[in-house]
Amino acid sequence: MSQDKIQTFLREIPKMRDDLPYSPEVLGKLFAQTGASSMASLEDVGKTLGRDQGLTTRILRLANSAYYGLQSEVVSVSRAAAVLGMHEIRNIVLTLGVNGLTSGYAMPDDFDLAEYWRHQFYVAMIAREISRVTEVGKPDNMFTAGLLHDIGKLIIALRRPEDWVAIRELAEEEGLPDVEAEDEYWGLDHAVIGALVLKSWDLPPALVEPVNWHHTPELSPGHSNEATVVCLADCAAHAVDEDGEYFSSRLESLCPDLEMALDEVMEVAEELAESKDIEQFVRLLA
């Protein structure tokens, strides 16, 4: 793989801010207003999101969907934030942003967008539960990091579909997990690409870094424990959905880092795999 081609791809990534279905400044301001030290009110958040009427409409459509099961309809973003919580509104906005990226590109025929979102949501749920049990990271942040952890795979499929196909073929031919096939193909993996995208969106390090290091949490300079939560959740989800020694081996090596037993992690993952929330979430984005 030509290094020039890789560098060209990496230089394109920050420009994907312009592909968001709303103003790129929205995310930065939203996270500033909903951070732990922020004094912003629900009305302030409503005003930030309300400047984009299209975004407001989409937020309210999702907030009032069967997935959330609200007893009465919410008619403003500030009311939706009050009922669902700030973190849920952030997740809705992020999900709309990621899903909106897919509208302007032709994806490879073999890329299953519904399965992509199923895995993201499944990992997010496991990561949140592991965070609650271990008290590592904030459960809401771990859910969001899980929801975004494979955005790099989506970006490769959108912006470099031929390379995505070549990586998948390499993985299948050599029996490699995706992350190792990516590294062999062009010397970096989807976690790095995803983190570059999220950083360009002005997301905080508490979310960017667990995504960046979710395959090598031991190398994370400042968020190793949080990256381990996402890595463990990802491996557990794969272990439930797929047969293979790679993820089982990774689970065995990771569990001691969070002082969890392998059986405990798998029990969490298997229980959440039966959740109806996963399919409802996927249908929500269809």
UniProtKB/TrEMBL annotation:
Highest taxon listed in the record's lineage: Bacteria
SUPFAM superfamilies from the UniProt entry: HD-domain/PDEase-like (SSF109604)
Pfam families linked to this entry: HDOD
Coiled coil: none
PROSITE patterns, alphabetized: HDOD
Gene3D superfamilies: Hypothetical protein af1432
Domain named HDOD: residues: 20-217
This protein's name: HDOD domain-containing protein
